[in-house]
Amino acid sequence: MIPFKGKFSGIRQYMKGKPHPWGFKVWARTGISGILCDFDVYQGSVQEEKELKKQGRGSFDFRVEQTHNICAVRWYDNRAVTLLSTFDGPQPVDKITRWDKSAKHYVEVSRPSIVKTYNRFMGGIDLLDSFTAKYKFHIRSMRWYLTILWHTIILGVVNAWLQYKRDCKTLQIPEKEVMNRRHFQAQLATSLIQTNTMKRGRPSMDESRAPRAAMARSAPPPDVRRDNVGHLPMKVEKRGRCVHCKDGYTTTACIECDVRLCFNDHNNCFHQFHT
């Protein structure tokens, strides 16, 4: 659910009992790890469930789309549940026990195979929702499409972080060296802001590129250091500690990274820092 309380949208939904009852309902397809594979904004339902309700709990109906081999199953438990799959279908049907409020005892209910498979691998959506709720920057806008656009960006950040963690596990990187979501998001933002910020061509001599009085001591992210764009040495007035070797003092700095680096006959930290 994408929270939104504006009045200028025909696809806004109300879902009672949700933390954010007003907003845009989103259909999403994720893996068990929470990585988003696909999503679509819900725009209303035209399907009826009255017939299944008359047949009672455990009743179901299904349709198969032959072109793409997609099976749609609608199963009625306490309410109708609709599932789509290219992998599973209604057969085989097994029995499960459910509490009957009116009869005050447990009853057996038929359950299609696709429901059993879903229950086995469910949880990815809830995991994704918990990730998107953390470190989220809210925007206030009457333009409803900006809310969906911003939510899409957040989903991209979460997907990138989950993929990063998967790659770290594959490369057997120690867990202590793996960035958490907050640090990953901060470094991603820094990289997007600083990468390729300098114009290509001969450097100009305007005031905007003049040496600065105070230099930043924190090293930029690797994406910025190694993009091979605009990393030129310049002289500064005050000597400072090299961010690469940590022992040398120099008056040479990178015009793009905004840090001091040794650049002499004995130490070429400038080259090592950018490779």
From TrEMBL:
Keyword set includes Transmembrane helix: yes
InterPro entries hit by this protein: PGBD
Pfam families: DDE_Tnp_1_7
Keyword Iron belongs to the record: no
Residue ranges of the TM segments: 144-162
Keywords for this protein: Membrane, Transmembrane, Transmembrane helix
Location of the region described as Disordered in the Swiss-Prot/TrEMBL record: 198-228
All copies of domain PiggyBac transposable element-derived protein, residue ranges: 53-161
Name recorded for this polypeptide: PiggyBac transposable element-derived protein domain-containing protein
Organism: Synaphobranchus kaupii
Taxon lineage: Eukaryota, Metazoa, Chordata, Craniata, Vertebrata
